[in-house]
UniProtKB/TrEMBL annotation:
UniProt keywords, alphabetically: Signal
Domain Flagellar assembly protein T N-terminal: 33-120
Protein origin, superkingdom: Bacteria
Ranges of residues in domain Flagellar assembly protein T middle: 124-273
One Pfam family linked to the record: FlgT_M
InterPro entries named in the record: FlgT_C, FlgT_C_sf, FlgT_M, FlgT_N, FlgT_N_sf
Gene3D superfamilies to which the protein is assigned, alphabetical: ABC-type transport auxiliary lipoprotein component, FlgT, C-terminal domain, FlgT, N-terminal domain
Organism: Alteromonas gracilis
Protein name: Lipoprotein
Signal listed as a keyword: yes
Signal peptide coordinates: 1-32
């Protein structure tokens, strides 16, 4: 290991990639088990606490994934475990006890071993491995004046692309396939309509809307009387809100806020390239990557059981072309339902979506990269129109 550079190590481990060994020790209660997991992370720029946090979070996440439990609360559990090396949780329903077994620093690598008492809920659905495609816009910066610190005026574009790349690398079946070249601030009265429009533009089933609430710089702390040799380093906040919508009906699936803070290691008057690896490998960039990773896990969980849904794009005789294909995990002989959705307004002016299912099941005759041709097992295609909907059975 001593012959490998720090940069190479960072690439190998991807800052927080664990070499995970899992051991399950089953105890008396039904479906309960003790899980031990070992995670490793590289110490970047001497930041041992960040490396320990990354290794702990990765180990805990892998233990929970292995046990079939939810990973949505990993970041919160990690924070609690680092504050108290042993803790009992009463509220999650899946993790009752956590213990930090040991930590070992060896050169630029930290190894952390955790033990967790996990009671998985066992949430399984047929759609959890289906391809999920998302449309989004550039994440809106709530206060653009904050971007003058470091001169990062294109941070919204850089962050959105970083988010999209991380989703594709971190997940096997999630992908941001369309980024509209603008930011979005929807009037609440027309949110569902705007969501459906954005989904149609990107030919996706889901829509992500993000707002970066705060990237402000904290005040520099003065040097201590007891450590005058230390240079003061300002800290910078990162906070964002995230919403995930069903692009078919405009309904909200998930809503959460994320926050982090880390040292801003660049000079106060330095112009920073927000697209560069120098920025993203800095302590602040790595903190943002941690927030992104947590958000992607939440998105994965919130959309796991949503069935693949697409649109009718053409009808010729008894063959119907739809906007789902091999990229969405569709294969020949797969079965689908077709339905029509229309907006209904009641006597109080409230809008509702009404669904009408077409009779029979539709079989995939041929599948292409982003489309398929289906035929009805009942031979009935009358009244099917473009922009009707199709869902995998």
């Amino acid at each position: 290991m001593q012959h490998i550079s720090k940069t190479t190590l960072a690439r190998i481990f991807n800052i927080a990639v664990a070499l995970v060994c899992l051991l399950a020790f089953f105890i008396g209660q039904a479906h309960a088990a003790w899980y031990e997991a070992t995670g490793q992370a590289v110490v970047v720029n001497g930041n041992k606490s960040a490396a320990k946090r990354a290794a702990t979070q990765e180990a805990l996440k892998q233990a929970m994934l292995f046990a079939g439990a939810s990973v949505q609360s990993v970041a919160k559990l990690t924070n609690g475990l680092l504050e108290n090396e042993e803790m009992t949780i009463r509220s999650t329903g899946e993790v009752e006890h956590l213990e930090l077994v040991d930590e070992i620093f060896n050169g630029d690598v930290v190894t952390v071993r955790v033990r967790a008492d996990i009671f998985p809920k066992g949430k399984i659905c047929s759609a959890q491995h289906d391809e999920k495609h998302f449309a989004t816009t550039h994440f809106r910066i709530r206060n653009r004046a904050q971007l003058t610190q470091g001169n990062i005026p294109h941070f919204d574009k850089a962050f959105t692309q970083r988010f999209a790349d991380a989703m594709q690398n971190q997940s096997e079946n999630l992908k941001i396939s369309y980024i509209a070249p603008h930011t979005a601030k929807f009037d609440s009265r027309y949110t569902d309509q705007n969501i459906r429009t954005l989904a149609a533009q990107g030919n996706t089933q889901f829509v992500i809307i993000g707002v970066i609430n705060d990237v402000s710089m904290g005040k520099e702390k003065g040097t201590s009387l007891f450590s005058p040799w230390r240079n003061s380093v300002p800290r910078r906040v990162f906070s964002m809100s995230l919403q995930v919508y069903d692009g078919i009906n405009g309904g909200l699936l998930f809503n959460s806020t994320y926050q982090g803070e880390e040292e801003w290691t660049f000079d106060r008057f330095e112009d920073v390239d927000e697209f560069s690896s120098t920025f993203w490998l800095s302590r602040y960039g790595q903190a943002i990557d941690g927030v992104i990773s947590e958000a992607i896990e939440d998105i994965k969980e919130s959309t796991a059981c949503q069935p693949i849904t697409g649109r009718v794009i053409n009808v010729v005789d008894n063959r119907v072309s739809v906007s789902l294909g091999r990229d969405n995990g569709i294969s020949e002989k797969d079965e689908m339902y077709l339905y029509q959705a229309k907006e209904v307004i009641d006597n109080r002016g409230r809008k509702y979506l009404q669904y009408s299912l077409y009779p029979g099941t539709f079989i995939v005759e041929s599948a292409f990269s982003n489309s398929s041709v289906v035929i009805s097992d009942a031979g009935i295609t009358a009244n099917i129109q473009n922009n009707d909907f199709v869902v995998k059975k």
